[in-house]
Write a structure and sequence with these properties.
Length: 392
């Protein structure tokens, strides 16, 4: 994205109208289908294939894509996808984490650099919810330092052979296909990284283990193993314009906005729950919401939510204008992830001892609020990104 390519057809009124209509539909589905199952899927820590497929059948994985590949063809896709992430997280951040991965990073690379055959075989079925997609970059000994990735792609006749291990891969154990970041030349660092589409039925691919998390428990997360996995040339996601990973990384910046939206949705759920509880729970002959200490806490929660909402959607609108968003996306993630985590902590304090009980959802909201602070890059990494933009 660059300021020299700003959209000339951008209209704030049109954006708000499209966003309002979009939110009304997805919010209804969240209230009717996701919220009633949120506690169960968290307790069972299992990927909900039923809800996942249903969301695809409704077309929500195609929010950011044109109609030519089965997408929605929306005029303001980044804002609408931000709404999708927020509303899904309001219902269940666990479910939202996997669903939003499906509609963004895990399918974007195939859309951007895959050929028509890959679009037909993988992208379109994924947007319909018929196939599950994943994006594998992190390794056991390599997280934020992407240049140190060890998964190797070696050129052979007709394609490449992949060897390595990936860690913390969302949708990893249930994926039908995975975009894998691997190095073709370790001496080149980041410039030697490329993207490869791996069908999980390929010989040599295996799931090392499904990871057990205390947060976003029903979001499938796995360790993946690649042992001499052959990737044909037409699954090599590179259009010849340098490192496909570096090209993808530029567009992945917008995913920080979506992570901020997940935090916002989780914070909203915690605030709504605490507000309702404060009006119902009685002590000393009156609802606890009548006490000034509780009122002030709720007001502070609302202030943090509004700050997160305004900055997150400011960044999303900039993305829809094709404006530079490196700083804005990182700041949105900092403001929303950390602010909404504080909201969840304050919601827990409103509940008091009952907040520790699994029969109330506030403990889940607090557990899940750790995910946006780490997923997609920690707060310190976001601060490092902004610092570099400041010239340091």
């Amino acid at each position: 994205m660059g300021s020299d390519n700003l959209r000339t057809d951008f209209s704030r009124d049109e954006l708000e109208a499209e966003a309002a209509e979009f939110r009304s539909y997805i919010a209804r589905w969240v209230d009717e289908r996701l919220v009633p199952q949120a506690e169960t899927i968290d307790h069972e820590a299992d990927f909900s294939h039923e809800l996942f497929k249903e969301l695809g059948e409704l077309g929500y994985y195609g929010v950011m894509y044109p109609e030519s590949v089965g997408g929605s063809g929306l005029k303001y896709p980044y804002t609408c996808f931000t709404i999708l992430c927020e509303e899904l997280a309001r219902g269940s951040m666990s479910f939202a984490a996997g669903a939003c991965m499906q509609g963004s990073t895990a399918t974007h690379t195939v859309f951007q650099w895959g050929n028509e055959t890959l679009h037909e075989k993988y992208l379109k079925p994924a947007l319909r919810g018929e196939k599950v997609a994943a994006f594998a970059i992190t390794e056991p000994n390599s997280g934020s330092d992407a240049a140190s990735l060890r998964t190797r792609a070696t050129r052979v006749d007709g394609g490449f052979v992949l060897n390595g291990t990936k860690m913390f891969t969302s949708n990893g154990t249930v994926a039908d296909f995975i975009t894998v970041v691997a190095t073709t030349d370790p001496s080149k660092g980041l410039k030697g990284l490329d993207l490869f589409l791996v069908d999980t039925t390929s010989p040599g691919f295996s799931v090392g283990r499904k990871l057990d998390k205390f947060s976003v428990r029903s979001s499938d997360t796995g360790e993946l193993v690649f042992e001499n996995v052959f990737v044909p040339d037409d699954h090599y996601l590179n259009n010849g314009s340098g490192s496909s990973f570096l090209n993808a990384y530029k567009s992945l910046t917008v995913d920080r906005i979506f992570t901020a939206a997940l935090a916002l949705g989780g914070g909203r759920a915690a605030y709504d729950s605490a507000l309702k509880y404060a009006k119902e729970r009685e002590q000393f002959g009156q609802p606890i919401g009548k006490f000034q200490a509780v009122q002030f806490r709720l007001v502070d929660m609302l202030a943090k939510l509004e700050q997160a909402r305004l900055y997150t959607y400011h960044a999303a609108a900039l993305a829809d204008q094709n404006a530079p968003i490196t700083t804005e996306a990182a700041l949105a993630k900092i403001v929303a992830a950390e602010g909404c985590h504080e909201v969840c902590e304050m919601a827990m304090s409103v509940y008091g001892g009952y907040g520790l009980m699994n029969e109330y959802p506030v403990q889940r909201f607090l557990r899940d609020s750790y995910f946006p602070m780490i997923g997609g890059g920690t707060g310190d990494i976001m601060r490092l990104i902004v610092s570099r933009q400041l010239g340091f």
